[in-house]
Structure formats: C-alpha cells, structure tokens
Amino acid sequence: MSEPSSQLNIDKKLNLLESSIVDDPLPAIHSERRNKIGIISEPLNKSLKKSRSLSNYSTFGSSSSVNDHLDKGVALSNVGDLTLDKSISTSKHKRISHLLNKSSRATEVSVDGLNSLQFMQYTDMFKGIGTEHVPPPTDLANGISDMEAVSTAETMNLSSEFPYLGAFPFNPGLFIMTPAGVFLAESALHMAGLAEYPTQNELASAINSGKKKRKRCGMCPPCRRRINCEQCSSCRNRKTGHQICKFRKCEELKKKPSPALEKVMLPTGAAFRWFQ
DNA sequence: TCTAACGTTTCA
DNA sequence: TGAAACGTTAGA
C-alpha cells in the first residue's frame, strides 16, 4: 500500500534527477542511466527512448504544425473510403491501416493528447485556414521523411475525391481501428460537421465487440518518466506482475476507460504507432 | 519468438 | 480496495 519513507525519499531524488532528464533536448544519446542509488535503469519500452521536447507537445503554439495536418490530413480520406464502401476487402483494410499508420506518424507528435475541447478549437481554427500551406522542411522531420509523406499522399490521392476530408486535420486518436476496419469516432464527425456521413453507426458498433488494449498517452508525467524506480512492487515483481513501474504508469490508463470518452479519443490513437 | 505492459481475476 | 498473479496483446 504505502511506500516506506525511505522509498519516498528515493523517489524524490529520482524525480529531481529525472526532471532534468525529461526535458533534456537530446535524451536519445543516453542509452543507459544510473540513478542516484546506483540502479541502472533503462526504459522498458525502447520506443520511449526517443523522448520529445516539450515543444513537440505544444500543438497550438505552432501554426506550421497545424498546417502540417492540413497537408497530411489525407489519412482521413481513407476513412471516407471505408465508410463509402462497405464491401471493402480485408486486405484493403490492411493496406489502409498501413497508410494511416504512415500518416499518423507524421501527425501524432503535435496533436497527441488533444482533448475534445481542444479538438473543437482546432477545427475552428481550420475553418479560417486554407490548404495552401507548404510546411517548412523542419516540420517534416517529425518522424517521417519527405519522401514518405509525399508518397503517402500521392498513393492515396484522395483530397479531390473527398473534399470534406482532405483539409481536415484528424488526430490519429480520432480514428478507431477495429477488426471491422478503421473509421472515425462519431464525435469527431460531429465536430467536423460530418455526422450524417453514412455507416458510422454501423461501424461504431464494432468497437464494442472487440476489446482493445489502450496505449500509454506518452505525455503525462509518468509516461514521460523514463526510469524505473526498481523499488516499487511492480518493478520488484516484474516477472510475475507484468506491470510497468508504478511511477511510470500512465495517468490515463489509471483511469477507468469511459465508453463515451473512448469513442472520442482513444488515448492518443490506439492502434497507431505512438512513440516512433 | 521474446519482451513489455494492459486488462482481468483472485486474494488478503 | 489495493496488490499480486496471470492471460493476453502488441511491437521489435
């Protein structure tokens, strides 16, 4: 239950240590860390070794980031494709998932973790913004190469087919991937004025049929913590407990998943590549 | 195939 | 009600 006072002291020290690590602009160079009590701790999730600077989490401070989503919002077109054609094959779903995956990698960094209110603000913002933006090269560096981004867009070539969607920046978290396919959370469509878009309700029923593991949000303090305390029960019982360090347990995952909330926002878009 | 870790169940 | 154990999933 309660941690021993020595544990608390240790953790305070660890937190102090980590406070300088979490915001380290070049954390990737650390392949191994030793905390003050001599424990070598590495992130259990290798992908978390690639930490993000705080600026990466700040969506609204960067118009280029926003416009990036305009350019890369083509991913949504796939969803439109899905919703338009019920007879779509499973293999096509896979292909679309793959493409979505690529696109989401480009978008997740700056949009991850938006709540629905932020999303609404986001969409409002886009009402006044065109699609003419060409992102500066630096904006393209967020985990996706120029070539990849271009090829994805070219492959899909859907903005003209789905004018509703081509200019809309969708957070990957607003996509819901189920065994039945990939589609948008209904609330997202409401926000986008697409609530009447066909088949969403039918597809939405598939969400409830399959349980999906939630993913760490990657942004809360525990998620950003990259060192296992090695002291808590989870660390001590890693073999049998199969649990992440208590101090690294995502705040979002600690909460009970609300069905309604889950539809709006799977934690930063489950089923996509979150940390890479 | 292995490892990390989420979800569920069981137990104190 | 929280901790522990275990099943299971997802990614490398």
TrEMBL record:
The keyword Zinc-finger applies. Its main location: cytoplasm. One of its GO terms (cellular component) is cytoplasm. Keywords: Cytoplasm, DNA-binding, Metal-binding, Nucleus, Zinc, Zinc-finger. One of its GO terms (molecular function) is zinc ion binding. It comes from the Eukaryota. The keyword DNA-binding applies. It is found in: Cytoplasm; Nucleus. Residues 210-251 form the CXXC-type domain. Interacts with DVL1. Interacts with RBPJ. This is CXXC-type zinc finger protein 5. It comes from Geotrypetes seraphini.
